[in-house]
Amino acid sequence: MEKSALLQRYNLKATPQRLEIVNVLSTHGHMNINELYTTLLVKFPSISLATIYKNINIMLEKCFLLEVKLSDQKNVFELVKNNHSHVRCVECADIIDIDLNLESILHEVKSISNYKIESNSLIFNGVCPRCSTLK
């Protein structure tokens, strides 16, 4: 789907900055706000960090972006996709998506806790194949 149509589907105006955020995240995957800012500066030299935060927050509110909260580094953002989990390298901080059947896990969490689960975030930490070969 065209990026401007995708934004409009989420009731977001297709501004040049938002289109580039979508382009960058679809190309690079998971990025923190500083990485996103540095990348966007190439195309928009006068863009401010405040503008990026404003756009990111609007995109989060509209459920267009997802914030992956990491315990020991800056949170990263990604385009919303199917329900998935993440694997993160503790050496290079690379993050990849993994598709797991989370239904059985969610069912077990509900039955153990009696909670009504509203959201989830599952992140596995390890050493990626590239970093493993460097050791």
Structural summary, described in words:
The chain has 135 residues and is an alpha+beta fold. It is built from 6 helices and 6 strands; from the N terminus they run ααβααββββαβα. It has a 3-stranded antiparallel sheet with strand order 1-3-2. A 3-stranded mixed sheet has the order 5-4-6, with no helix packed on it. The longest helix is centred in the first third of the chain and has 13 residues, at 16-28.
Summarize it:
The protein has 135 residues and is of the alpha+beta class. It has helices spanning 3-9, 16-28, 33-43, 49-61, 102-113, 129-134; strands at residues 31-32, 65-68, 76-79, 85-89, 95-98, 123-126.
Question: How do the helices and strands line up, and which of them pair or pack?
Answer:
Elements: H1 3-9, H2 16-28, E1 31-32, H3 33-43, H4 49-61, E2 65-68, E3 76-79, E4 85-89, E5 95-98, H5 102-113, E6 123-126, H6 129-134
Parallel strand pairs: 4-6
Antiparallel strand pairs: 1-3, 2-3, 4-5
Helix pairs in contact: 2-3
